Amino acid sequence: MSGNKKKTITKAEQLKQLQEEEEKRLREEEEARLKFEKEELERLEKQRIEKEKWQQLEKKDLERRPEELEELYSLEECFPEAEKLKQDSRSLSQWKRYIQCDGSPDPSVPQEMNTFISLWKEETNETFEIVIEKSKLVLQLIEKLKLMLLETAPRDLRDKNIIQYEGSISQLQELLHLKFNIATEILLRQASTLADLDTGNMEKIIQDENVTLYVWANLKKNPRYKSVRFSDTQTGFEIPRILATSDIALRLLHTHYDHVTPPQAAPAPSPQHTSAASELFKSETKSTTEAASQEAQEDSKPQERGSVFIQEGEIKVDEQVDSEVQMTSVKKESKATECELEMKLLSETVAAAQLNLIKNAPEKPEVSESKEVDLCQFTILGGVYHLDILELPPQCKPVKGWMMVEILKEGLQKFTYPPEITENFETENAFPPIEVTLQVQEKVAFFEEPMVARWDAKGKYWRTDGISDVYYTPEKKLISFNLETFGPVTLMQDTHINMPYQSWELQPLDVNKALLTVTTVFTEIQIQIKENLCMLASIKVKDKGPWSVLEGKWMTPIPFISALKETGLNIFPTAYSHFYVVINNKVPLVEMKAYRQMALLSSAIAFGWSKWNTLCDSTNVVFKVREHLTEEHTDIPNWALFMFSGDRARRLKINEESESFSEALGEETELHSTLYHMVKDFASKEAIEKVRSSSCQFIDSVCHMLLSTRVLSYS
């Protein structure tokens, strides 16, 4: 019985056990404290070493910064050189236009433009075919004037030139539309002689690369003939009974361009920087020349040397020779200084213009009406469809072998539908909306259903009310809708449908050749850049669409960007785009410096999108970098990650697959003041030679495309 009993613990044993547990706890706490102190000391020591290392790297960077920046400025002289070449090219084009003598006016000369416009106004009785043929020259002149406004540097474009060019554009557009109206009237006077044998009505289609005219004249006034379909097309109208029984003509004039929308006022660049630089240039040149002349005059004065006297004749000869030599030397030095200052001014002007390209507007443009279309948010594609119901003019009548026609003094008149006074009509639905079916222009493509808008002639803006039952068939490129009142109509697409981008990459192909790839939600576009030209290399979409026309066609950057926008492929943000797209906003100056230096390296160094760019602050940009010598280069190294703040570049320790973002410096790397010197740390000799042999026009073109796409902010 006693063996089965539990052993009782005495009070002394309990006390001993508690004491042992307390000692154990104190020992563990001491060990933990010592461990923590050791780790803290190690951490502080590591921090100290890293801080010392960082301070050493910063010190080293600051010591060599003047040298690195001087070398960068030397490389960046390519930008003013490229601008100088553009100016020379414009001057040469102007001279070629002058000696061409082909009868076409020079759009930059107001006298020639005024003469051309006045002479064309005087020409009468021109048929539609003649006007269409003449319109080709008119449209060329308008395009040249627009390009002159876009391509000419702000410092070379005076206010009076801008007013002159914009005035000429407006006059040409108005006169061209007037000529189309007069030609339509002439055509409609002959409607009875051109009537279709089956329907008794006149139908006419006149087509050109820039204009398509559809005209239907209601000669029979058959109340059952309500469906108007132009032969061999799906284009047409469903008209109500009141129109089917009226003396009217329906005209659809599809201009593949937009001469209706007034030019949008873009945020003007501040002229303060340019004017200040100009004044600095003038004052420095003047002071330098004056100082040099004064020095020469002082040096040319006769001098007495000790007690040695020279004969008067010898003094005069020596004075004359010395004076001529010194003045020649001064002129050369003055000229060299003037050229140097001129290039400095041009460099500052170019940099200011580049910075202006990526500056965000401070305020969103106001839209006065709820139904008014915001033209900063939507873009017109495929031109304008001028829909008109016209009063049928008096018809030609044969009289004794002559054709007699009554010509109305007021010219072509529009038929008001619905009429302003509707008291005589009983039914409420006497004036229903007219169903319109339009053929979408082949040269444009919509990624989503187009938005239909009509022109408000009084308010001078596009609006979306008065349009219903829109139906789009992308396979047939047809769009139908109901329209309450006729007038100019257009199709629109969201300007930012391809923004923000999903990724981007700038890849060298060879010296002075590169490929810019931008991937969006709907497509992947590849732009090849060579010297001062750009080309659409490829585009990945379900349907090849209108872009096949642009593939393989080389253009300078500004016309190339315009051509892509006109087809519906817009990857070029405006100053207002940040109000409509969620962007990764960066400081404009940092962004501009990054694009300029990336362009300098683009003959041998590839750059690409990094997911970490969204996680760093607005004063830094992060992107992938690697050497890429040729298109067939197989041994391509892994991407490195660079962070750039505009005045300091570093290689990061993390890579694209890392779990979290860190600004820690990569192993065995240093800080540099420029991307060029950062790249030099790992690039091969061959790569640096390619970079240094790049042409100024190529670098400028790459920089322009990067500034226009803004891949660092809109990806």
UniProtKB/TrEMBL annotation:
InterPro entries: CASC1_C (IPR022110), IC97/Casc1_N (IPR031826), IC97/Dnai7-like (IPR023247). It holds the Pfam family Casc1_C. GO terms for molecular function: beta-tubulin binding; microtubule binding. GO terms for cellular component: axoneme. It comes from the Eukaryota. Residues 18-30 have a biased composition (Basic and acidic residues). Residues 460-627 form the CASC1 C-terminal domain. Residues 1-30, 260-313 are annotated as: Disordered. Belongs to the DNAI7 family. PANTHER family: DYNEIN AXONEMAL INTERMEDIATE CHAIN 7 (PTHR20929:SF11), LUNG ADENOMA SUSCEPTIBILITY 1-RELATED (PTHR20929). This is Dynein axonemal intermediate chain 7. It comes from Heterocephalus glaber.
